[in-house]
Amino acid sequence: MKKYGPIGIFDSGVGGLTIMKEVLKALPEYDYMYLGDNARAPYGTRSFDSILKYTLECCNYLFEKGCRLIILACNTASAKALRTIQQNHLPKIDPNRRILGILRPTTETVGLYTQSRHIGILGTPATISSDSYIIEINRFFPDTEVFQQACPMWVPLVENMEYDNPGADYFVEKYLAQLFLQSDQIDTLVLACTHYPFLYNKIRQFIPSGITILNQGTIVASALKNYLIRHPEIEQYCNKNHQRSFYTTDASLDFERKASIFFEAAIKADVFKI
């Protein structure tokens, strides 16, 4: 008998809900299961070994809950852990299951938006230190120049719901100034962390007009839609009952409060005890 299940969406915290919202707009008929590892967030300052361990534990949990396909809606996990899991762990877990990241869909399309061929990447320290965006963008668009800036304080601002307060201005302006010191020709920005869209209005205040800020959510949603069309052997196992479930590794009430704001809808979550 076929075993059907939801599409899993994993993030280190609540930021991945910005991806999930866009996925639901594009593919509302499927079942989805979201897991936020809030107890160990943020991942952006963690070591490679820790990021790999935490990501693998959470993916295994989603597999145990019936997911056949998982989206790593976390740039840090996609940049640091995805390839190792795909190559070394997934064949042993179940070669018929899939884990997809959000870095590849973004880097495949970013070159289509820039006229100056100068692209700016804003991400966590772990994402930036991996150089994954530079490597992948240069693979698809070798005529571009990529400039990176780590923003270690942005995820804490968002996780603590301080992203829209005046106190956030200092850190938003600081990291943007450091990025544009590298090149004043940047015309396209990638918010390479799913938490960063909540700082969109602040970012707009401190950058020149006319700069494109890419929304990873719509890019990932489009890529997932195309993936399911191209891979019916995976799609056929994805339930279509319009059901959504949410899990957190931390206190459920705190997650529900934050997630309901991020998701713009009331959320009830269960706890995955790590």
DSSP strand tally: 10
Biggest sheet overview: 6 strands, parallel
Structural class based on helices, strands and sheet pairing = alpha/beta
Low-confidence runs of at least 5 consecutive residues: none
Mean pLDDT: 95
The arrangement of helices and strands along the chain is: EHEHEHHEHEHHEHHEHEHHEHE
Shape: globular
The spatial strand order of the largest sheet comes to: 4-3-1-2-9-10
N/C terminus separation: 31 Å
List keywords for this structure.
10 strands, 274 residues, alpha/beta, six-stranded parallel β-sheet, globular
Q: How are the SSEs ordered, and which strands pair?
A:
Elements: E1 7-11, H1 17-26, E2 32-36, H2 48-64, E3 69-72, H3 75-80, H4 82-93, E4 98-100, H5 103-109, E5 118-123, H6 125-130, H7 132-140, E6 145-150, H8 154-159, H9 169-182, E7 188-192, H10 200-205, E8 212-214, H11 216-230, H12 232-235, E9 244-248, H13 252-263, E10 269-271
What does this structure look like?
Helix 13 links the parallel strand 9 and strand 10 (269-271). This protein has a six-stranded parallel beta sheet, sandwiched between helices. Strands 6-5-7-8 form a four-stranded parallel beta sheet, sandwiched between helices. The chain is globular. Helix content is 45%, strand content 16%. The model has no long low-confidence stretch (mean pLDDT 95). The two termini are 31 Å apart. It is built from 13 helices and ten strands. It has 274 residues and is α/β, with parallel strands linked by helices.
